[in-house]
Amino acid sequence: MKVLVTGSAGFIGSTLALRLLERGDTVIGVDNLNDYYDVSLKQARLARLTADTGFTDLRLSLEDRAQIAAAFAEHRPDRVVNLAAQAGVRYSIDNPLAYVDTNLVGFAHILEGCRHNGVEHLVYASSSSVYGANTHMPFSVHDNVDHPLSLYAASKKANELMAHTYSHLYGLPTTGLRFFTVYGPWGRPDMALFKFTRAILEGSPIQVFNDGKHRRDFTYIDDIVEGVIRVLDRVPAANPAWSGDTPDPATSSAPYRLYNIGNNQPVELMHYIEVLERCLGREAQKDLLPLQPGDVPDTYADVTDLVAQLDYKPATTVEDGVARFVQWYRDYYGVQ
Question: CB neighbours of 263 closer than 8 A, spacing ≥ 6?
């Protein structure tokens, strides 16, 4: 297939593009290399892809309506995976308008590109953040999510609503993936594992919010990418059992689906730090702080639908995943 991947210099996007190329797909990569975090890391991720003749590297921003439309018209992708977004819950507290530009306006341009160019399937990144004030565990895609706690979360919920509208009006098959705390080699420097590793190796203290008591469904990058590919290959159809009297948020009378992708095994943050300390052979200096605005105490993914419909369930343990990240970090930055 010819697959357009936005956010191709990103953590998930670059790893996904590599896997697609390895299996013989043609990949059109879209990224603007913004400076939200270290651009050299993004360039290094892209270097893994650009040596492959099946990869086309486009330097575009989703907000640029004309350029996105032109890219779709020229390259005519069969399927699209939209991973480009302004990321980060805490960043959205101080910079809300950045999320409007990329996550709302930009996503609308992707939907229009798919609509007008015969795209067979749009897969897009949502987030576990959409569960917001929900406390019923595990989080299920069949539950309503109407109480987001950050504009980042609200923008991802909005993406799901926008996608449903295009599925309903134009018959565009769309699948939203709610990612749960992705980590691993080539990860994002603004994420906890990256920041903790750097600080511990430098001998600096780490900030541990909620006294380390909150739990996260940490999900290893290879498990995430395996899930994305399985979803990409399965074009959704309308759910014939869907009823407006008892509407199921995860399906529709249109070709629309939502899935959680998480490890289905929440881990307390303090245990996560202990695993990292063992891998590094050093103990962290910890500044214990309260839960931050926009954060939720716990996340826990119900992945029943992925197991039942796609014969898939993430399986990498935190112990294995953190060890692989630490090895990559030491190799990439040349530190011991």
Answer: 180, 217, 218, 219, 220, 223, 301, 314, 316, 318
CB-count exposure of residue 79 (10 Å: 0-12, 13-18, 19+): buried
Catalytic, 259? Answer no
The residue whose two tokens read 């590094």 is 280
Distance, in Å, from the CA atom of 182 to the CA atom of 217, rounded to the nearest integer, reads 9
- The catalytic residue among 36, 152, 220, 259 is 152
Helix, strand, coil share (%) of the chain residues, nearest 5 = 45, 15, 40
This prediction has a pTM of 0.95
| DSSP type of residue 283 | P
For the segment 7-63, what is each residue's pLDDT rounded down to a tens digit?
A: 999 999 999 999 999 999 999 999 999 998 899 999 999 999 988 899 999 999 999
Residues in CB range of 144: below 8 A, 6 or more apart: 249
